[in-house]
Amino acid sequence: MTNYKLTVAYDGANFHGFQRQPKLRTVQGVLEKALTKMAKGKHIEVIGSGRTDAGVHALGQVISFQYPGKLGADNMLKAVNSLMPLDVIIKNSEIVADDFHARFGVVKKTYQYRVDCGHYTDPFKRFYTGHYPYPFEVQKIETALNDLIGEHDFSSFAASGGVIENKVRTIYQATVDYSQPNNELIFEFTGNGFLYNMVRILVATLLEIGNGRRPEHDLLRLFEVKDRQEARGTAPASGLYLKEVFYK
Amino acid sequence: MTNYKLTVAYDGANFHGFQRQPKLRTVQGVLEKALTKMAKGKHIEVIGSGRTDAGVHALGQVISFQYPGKLGADNMLKAVNSLMPLDVIIKNSEIVADDFHARFGVVKKTYQYRVDCGHYTDPFKRFYTGHYPYPFEVQKIETALNDLIGEHDFSSFAASGGVIENKVRTIYQATVDYSQPNNELIFEFTGNGFLYNMVRILVATLLEIGNGRRPEHDLLRLFEVKDRQEARGTAPASGLYLKEVFYK
Fold it and tell me: Residue A67: is it exposed, middle or buried by C-beta count within 10 angstroms (0-12/13-18/19+)?
């Protein structure tokens, strides 16, 4: 058996998320079907760096799997791509040490979140951005992003239903760029881990800060109160992109 | 009653085409539902400049309809937009003479067709381009586009099932641009009318000419033979955009 690490981009608009589910079109399902076909029916189990929800996109999701025989990394790339639907591509392929594990080996991840700020959203952005047609000051959002850097308890920013007890995570980088021609806000967050819906809840809260409906340093209060009810909104899945996954 | 002319853009990926169909999500259906609601239940019939198929997009579809009362053009724009789903926007609104008719008044139309030329298509282009991952020479396509200008019998380029007897149409402009950063070919065709699937069949044939699988002047032969079997392919709906509709 050979251990492979593949970097995968996908348009999540027409997937029921990453994780395999019976009878539903999922990214893991599509990948495992292709690899199992290549392995002449022997089931290949794909490990992802983490799940992405229905409608969430990936520019650089990472997967790993054990495959019988020793296909070169390039041939693996070509073979899998030839079996992919058009909304999934393999961007990179490597043969890695047997102990590489796409989920357990993650040291940090970068998520991007794109927000269309137009008064009426561009009809071609519906599945590819969130939407915030209200006034905002980028400066206020930047102030709040500074509060985000470092180690914090993100209990206020975790969707209920998660099973993880420890909600302390470290954010290394958090930026926002306003793209004039597209009238889009582009957020990027790099951290050692993200709770369920954490980026989407953060973005909804940051937009309220930008709009002045919350004080600029409201994140500090939200870290203290540890109460999901206080953060309220969740930005839609359509704007979220898993951009990059980092390993040791 | 007041007669309105609206310019509409839509992402066709999640519509079963323009034309109203029972129980299916169509652009005409969405527009008529909104207008009928605005008119307090009085059914408003929307006339489109022409149909677009499932998956075909519009940058500038034109519709007209008679509406009770005299809402200003700007207020009509705002009211309809407030009732549109995110994948449809009204870009312009005018009050027009009673004899304006969005279909009968058309004097010419411009269609755009986008082709992703990457070896593996970008997963985010699946629903928004056609795909041609083979070599081509733009020069050959340009030569063929010159043959297209003028009045021709397009019988070889009409999908069967059409009911129109006269298949002579005039093409005023036909261009192709290769966009380096996106690795896309962008075709534009302006003509006094287009038969069913005509643009998509033309694009498939033009790509074969660009690739060298057909002689550069094969269009001239295809105009002569008047045989759909000779043109063969049909480029996918996903790359087609109704760009502009012109009236007297």
Answer: middle
